[in-house]
Amino acid sequence: MKEGFRQSMAWLHTWTGLIVGWVLFLVFLTGTAGYFDEEITRWMQPERPLAAQHSVDVAVGLATSQERLTAQAASAHRWIVWLPSLRDDPNWRIHWPGLLENVKYGQGQQYIDPVTGDAFSPQGHVKPRNTGGGVALYRLHYNLHYIPERAGVLIVGLSTMLMLLAISSGIITHKKIFVDFFTFRPAKGQRSWLDAHNLISVTALPFFVMITYSGLVFFMDVYMPAAMYEVYGRTSYVAGRSTPLNPRSNAQFDPMYEVSPEWQPPARGYGQAMPLIDLRHPLSQVQALWGTSRIAAVLIEHPGQAGARITFIRTEDSLLGGGRLTFDGVSGQLLQLPPRQRSTPWNAQDVLINLHEGLFAGWGLRWLYFLSGLLGCAMIATGLVLWTVKRRVKQDKRLKAGQSVEFGFRLVEALNIGTIAGLCTAVAVYFWANRLLPTDFAGRRAWELHCLFIAWGALLLYASVRLRFAPSLRVWQEQLWIAAAAYALIPLLNWATTNRHLGVTVPHGDWVLAGFDLTVLALGICFAAGALKVGRRRHVGVHTGVVQAEPRKAPA
Amino acid sequence: MSKAGPTTPGYRWMVASRVLAAAVGGYAITSLATAVLALLLPRVVGSSTASGVLAATLWSFMLYTVIVIWVFRTRSAMRAWAGLGLSGLVLGAALLALKVWT
Predict the structure, then answer these.
(1) Do the interacting molecules here have an ipTM over 0.85?
(2) How far apart are CA A494 and CA A469, in angstroms?
(3) Contact predicate A271/A288, CB 8 Å
(4) pLDDT at A31
């Protein structure tokens, strides 16, 4: 019976993996890029200034901001000061209600020099080119493209559920999961592909389980609304999306939920004019309490009144959300407000969502997320290739007998080459389009993505046609070389089209921009290595799928 | 049951039957069970209604996975449908009972 169980799970694993493998590859590829979406957007807008070389002391910047706000918006009921962010905007920005310039996330921002207080235009005289940036790639990962958002969410959700099944059945099927972890038999054809697939899958298994399950939780109000409909009825939730199951906006359904202190009505005495304390006083307390933690923003409610409040907001560096410290705006005294409490199901949901998004991650952990995501792509790729490798002997026999290759096999092979190599190339083409489309071209934002999909479509077509005339290893080799060139030449393209290339960014120390060029170069080298390896196998005449009697002593 | 049977038309119908059972039947049972659990939790554990809905739904994907694995593991497609049907009746009755006895 046990034998039957493992066999049926192997069958389930193969089919769930095969049906949505290529969609999942797209999801993993764009999602992995999404961990660096802000950085990618910065690279795609080379008109933006380079990172500041010397950071100004927070106290100086805060004092300057307070001065500017008092001068320009003394009667406003709210001020916000945003501190420079490593990931997003490296400038000091201030806001008051009614400010209409540089609107981002619905709020206008004025860029100020932290020392002199002068307002400036962040991009100087040149407006950054209109682009979807890295965020557009990240959106692909759950909305897909060219179809309504809800349809994309449903398709990705179905794929994710099948992936959860693939992971579960894969674990059940894998007999000696711990012993096999230390097994890799190179140059043995099908065996090697299986070992690679197992090794990659098991290495980042906790990450894959987390990312898959949490992915479903994101849209659980769409995927499993039964309980919600039963208890709350089937009213139209679509507008506003504030459903009890939408993790972005269901906080108010938690009986333990309290409105954040700074949004509550101000204290008694409001209305009397009283000067706001110098922001550097509460700042020193914050720095004593939070140490070297980064402050993301400072929110001032009812400045110049009794009952004013100052809230320091920490950058998101904990799984249960960022921290806040609130002070009385006149006396500067720390208000001992009760800690944020949430019921267990909301905490569970928040932890899952935050683990998936990784917004809390610092640089090291973010790179780990990125590499784990790439491992996910590799897991899917090795699984898909393994399927063809297993069946190649049978297909070769058919060719020898004068028949053509079976339709299903050819379909999978074309999709494999066109997606595993082709889609990666298409993402590189997205970056090429960003540099090559004219900056004043009105439709460039949409056309950058069109170029991605045109490239992918072309490479899929190329793979399926070429497979009729050339052996599959040759087609793999060609497409891997194309991918290698598409990535490795980006730094050169960057040098030819902008002044944000490695020759400028490395000496200046702008490691975000330099990092992009170096990463794509590294990816190009990886594809080239793959192409070379495929070339070697072709020349030696090794057929994957045939177990050799004498294993080659090839470098691993 | 062994999946490594001959690829006869009978086999293909059996596969299609299980896929349908797992996909549609499994989803239906999971939805029923989630609704029942959401109504049950506040009564048994004393949590709020919203808490029950959220907790039940968070678990639902795990339940769906287990149901699908069972559908493919059980001895025959008929057994799969029978099991789903029986669970559906039991859960449906439970749901009605919970709604009536407020």
Answers:
(1) yes
(2) 36
(3) no
(4) 97
